[in-house]
Amino acid sequence: MGSCTRRHFLLSTCFLQMITIIERQVFDFLGYMWAPIFVNFFHILFIIFGFYGAYHFRIKYIITYLIWSFLWIGWNAFLICFYLNVGTLDKDSDLLNLGTGSVSWFEVNGYGCKPTYPTNFTSEDPYRPIRPERVDDCLLTYDLIEVIHSGVQCALALLGILGAILISYIFLDEDDRFDFMNGDAKSPQHTVVHPILIDCDC
């Protein structure tokens, strides 16, 4: 795989990540899921770092993107466990909404969903949204949709890690083979030219 192909691979992966995370961010905003909103925002920034690093061959930006991708996989693995109620995690808790009581937008707005709300319900907190007693006829339940979202993000992050490692390998390999006369193999137009001093006894 040549350097151009590896570069295009990472650029394409970053582009797909940007599209999917913007879609996810929109639905997290609609559901007032504040913790995912903040983390998604950071992910958008690091995708930009990765894209910039791949486009301009900047190794520091690519390594930053690489490190973040591992953290991003950890966050999405946590979300998968959260929505699947793994261990002590509870998808009905206020962990992701930071105490606002809101839930995933897909709980009542998923395709085919028909929510049933309590008829005589008085809430102690008027700012806390009312959740339905049950939701019927959903094509996919909201927790399954969120797990799919996180699974897609994990898969794209793994592709991004692969692309970043391949490009980083090119940089390191070029540094080992072509770093002569204090030049920069990645930017030949900035190669340092030293004068040659000839010491002759005439």
Automatic annotation (TrEMBL):
Any one GO cellular component localisation term in the record: plasma membrane
InterPro entries xrefs: Na/K-Atpase_Interacting
Pfam families the UniProt entry points to: NKAIN
This protein's UniProt keywords: Cell membrane, Membrane, Transmembrane, Transmembrane helix
Statement: the UniProt record of this protein carries the keyword Nuclease: no
Subcellular localization: Cell membrane
Membrane-traversing stretches: 34-55, 62-86, 150-172
Membrane topology of this protein: Multi-pass membrane protein
GO biological process terms held by the UniProt record: regulation of sodium ion transport
Main location: membrane
The keyword Isomerase belongs to this UniProt entry's keyword annotation: no
Protein family per UniProt: Belongs to the NKAIN family.
Protein name as catalogued: Sodium/potassium-transporting ATPase subunit beta-1-interacting protein
Origin organism lineage: Eukaryota, Metazoa, Ecdysozoa, Arthropoda, Hexapoda
